[in-house]
Amino acid sequence: MSENSVHPQATLQAVEAALGACAQHISLALGEVTVVVDAADYLRAAELLRDDAACRFEQLLDLCAVDYSTYGDGAYDGRRFCVVSHLLSVSLNQRVRLKVFAPDDDMPMVDSLTTIWNSANWFEREAFDLFGVIFEGHNDLRRLLTDYGFIGHPFRKDFPVSGHVEMRYDAEQRRVVYQPVSIEPREITPRIIREDNYGGLH
Predict the structure, then answer these.
(1) How far, in Å, CA of 86 to CA of 61, rounded?
(2) Would you list the domain boundaries of the chain?
(3) CATH superfamily of domain region 8-142
(4) Per-residue b or e along 94-127, where b marks 16 or more CB atoms closer than 10 Å to that residue's CB
(5) Which of 59, 94, 134, 192 could be cross-linked to 109 through a Cys-Cys bond (beta carbons 3.0 to 4.6 Å apart)?
(6) Do residues 62 and 98 make contact, with C-beta atoms less than 8 angstroms apart?
(7) Tens place of pLDDT for every residue, the chain, 202 residues?
């Protein structure tokens, strides 16, 4: 932490004061402040974090989605999809992690932050592409990393390792075609064999 940085405890108190009832949970761990807000308060909370004089988080550094469906080896009992944003205040030299859970697991949707920080644009497109999270209010929400004809969202925990379809160039049709995956699903585990006294180890 820089000597000019606001102490994390002071950041926590500033965030707590700014958000008030919008904050469901605020924590400080490993020198990092994390705040969880309800989806209904997400946009308002983001505005407060940007505009409050003691917060002034002018920059959104990163935004990603998380699939909690296998978290804790199935012991987790809560909403499946979460959107996590990392915010930076350049003027006050402090950071905060903002989390929101999508209320519907079958159609995860939260507000877009593009009207507050335009850097959210491609981050939200990536989260939509890879996790299927819909960002309401985003004016250009389309796939960013996968192909236009891609089926599914490859970072979801239930997405098959081999995918759903494969593509190849068809010489007769003179174009790329899609077809069901032809690779047999299998698990390849490397086998390690060590000789006695290998490398002088006993």
Answers:
(1) 6
(2) 8-142
(3) NADH:ubiquinone oxidoreductase Nqo5 subunit (3.30.460.80)
(4) bbbbbbbbbeeeeebebbbbbebbeebbebbbbb
(5) 134
(6) no
(7) 555 667 999 999 999 999 999 999 999 999 999 999 999 999 999 999 999 999 999 999 999 999 999 998 878 889 999 999 999 999 999 999 999 999 999 999 999 999 999 999 999 999 999 999 999 999 999 999 988 778 899 999 999 887 778 888 999 999 988 888 887 766 666 766 666 766 665 5
